[in-house]
């Protein structure tokens, strides 16, 4: 059976932080830290915190601003992390709430109701608890029958979940799959680290996957095929987990939070992504110039420019390979879905697009999409 994406949804948290605000808070924190530890820094026992700059951030990443689920606490130099009050067990959890917002929008776009869905996948870089699954909480909140489960694949969580949705619809084991990506990254950002404090934002995205025969939305994309690859790397890592308590680890230690070797990631992931995409297209006897739209992972503008240039032998137009980093920053697995959500309706029937994630793991996941007749 032919499998389609029939709707997408994007939920943007109401708060945002500009580079200027973020840098002002970080620099005030760094100056306070350096003053407090002046002697140890002089003796070489500690290294001074270097200062950040909004110009560097824009040039190195393409990021101007990021959305955050809770702004309170992040810019407080005596806290440097969001202040998210714990919710009671009988309240909807934070990530489930984000997921529900995006899911409702995707259902509306796909012209579907809860009754048309029988599988819910919540897939993202982190889940706020291990069980009960967030996906089951979301399923309950939306009144969906069937089954639900969580998935974690960092940057490729969204594409890998779409792959699973594709397989379930193709196999006839599901009639409608809701893939949701509530990317609540801010609790894992080290706002005290000059090299990574600017990279991430919070957002939630969702997509409806179903059989072509049941689709009745205005913009429907056939999934021609999927391709995934993983290759282990420690260059992007977070050590926080349920064993941390038994390890007697300090939850505030740097290795408990997102940390990376950004240069190495850049150098290693770009060629992997280019090779992966070319191989995927060649399965359909296609070459890059035949692809009308590139919905690429959004980690860094220079990375996207390099990958697009390698694929096309020229610079892509802003319309061909849309960038959403300026206002969203890196939103882990949601980035390529945001790029799709904001830039897909203008494709003509028969035109092709490529959705691709790349990042932590390393992991790369792609889907070749073809706009259907409306
Ligand atoms: N302000 C001023 N200067 C700075 C700053 C700053 N904020 N940060 C670094 N510098 C300095 C550096 O210290 C360095 O100084 P020096 O040359 O004296 O050593 C200089 O600027 C240049 O630094 P870099 O070489 O590191 O700069 P780059 O141009 O490489 O840019 C980037 C750094 C932006 C990190 C870049 O390397 C990059 O984007 N690499 C790819 C990273 C990537 O894609 N990572 C994937 C992220 S993982 C993911 O997408 C999902 C993971 C799961 C979610 C986690 C949620 C929390």
Automatic annotation (TrEMBL):
It comes from the Bacteria. Residues 149-216 form the Beta-ketoacyl-[acyl-carrier-protein] synthase III N-terminal domain. Keywords: Acyltransferase, Transferase. It holds the Pfam family ACP_syn_III_C. CDD domains: KAS_III. GO terms for biological process: fatty acid biosynthetic process; secondary metabolite biosynthetic process. Residues 281-370 form the Beta-ketoacyl-[acyl-carrier-protein] synthase III C-terminal domain. One of its GO terms (molecular function) is 3-oxoacyl-[acyl-carrier-protein] synthase activity. Gene3D superfamilies: 3.40.47.10. InterPro entries: ACP_syn_III_C, ACP_syn_III_N, Thiolase-like. This is Beta-ketoacyl-ACP synthase III.
């Amino acid at each position: 059976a032919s499998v389609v994406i029939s709707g997408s949804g994007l939920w943007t948290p109401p708060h945002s932080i500009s580079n200027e605000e973020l840098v002002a808070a970080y620099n005030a924190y760094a100056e306070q830290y350096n003053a407090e530890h002046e002697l140890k820094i002089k003796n070489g026992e500690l290294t001074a915190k270097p200062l950040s700059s909004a110009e560097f951030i824009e040039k190195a990443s393409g990021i101007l601003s990021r959305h955050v689920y809770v702004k309170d606490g992040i810019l407080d130099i005596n806290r440097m992390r969001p202040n998210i009050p714990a919710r009671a067990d009988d309240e909807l959890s934070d990530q489930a709430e984000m997921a529900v917002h995006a899911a409702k929008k995707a259902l509306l776009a796909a012209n579907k109701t809860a009754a048309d869905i029988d599988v819910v996948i919540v897939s993202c870089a982190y889940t706020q608890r291990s069980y009960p699954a967030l996906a089951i909480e979301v399923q309950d909140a939306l009144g969906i029958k069937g089954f639900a489960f969580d998935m974690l694949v960092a940057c490729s969580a969204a594409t890998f979940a779409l792959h699973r949705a594709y397989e379930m619809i193709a196999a006839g084991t599901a009639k409608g799959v809701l893939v949701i990506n509530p990317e609540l990254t801010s609790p894992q950002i080290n706002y005290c680290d000059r090299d990574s404090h600017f990279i991430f934002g919070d957002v939630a995205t969702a997509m409806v996957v179903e059989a072509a025969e049941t689709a009745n939305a205005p913009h429907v994309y056939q999934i021609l095929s999927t391709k995934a690859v993983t290759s282990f790397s420690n260059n992007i890592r977070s050590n926080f987990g349920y064993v941390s308590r038994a390890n007697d680890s300090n939850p505030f230690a740097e290795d408990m939070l997102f940390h990376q070797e950004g240069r190495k990631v850049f150098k290693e992931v770009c060629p992997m992504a280019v090779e992966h995409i070319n191989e995927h297209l060649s399965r359909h006897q296609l070459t890059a110039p035949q692809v009308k739209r590139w919905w690429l992972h959004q980690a860094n503008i220079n990375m996207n420019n390099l990958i697009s240039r390698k694929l096309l032998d020229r610079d892509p137009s802003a319309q061909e390979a849309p960038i959403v980093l300026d206002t969203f920053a890196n939103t882990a697995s949601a980035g390529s879905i945001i790029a799709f959500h904001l830039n897909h309706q203008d494709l003509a029937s028969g035109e092709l697009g490529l959705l691709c994630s790349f990042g932590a793991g390393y992991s790369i996941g792609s889907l070749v999409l073809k706009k259907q007749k409306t």
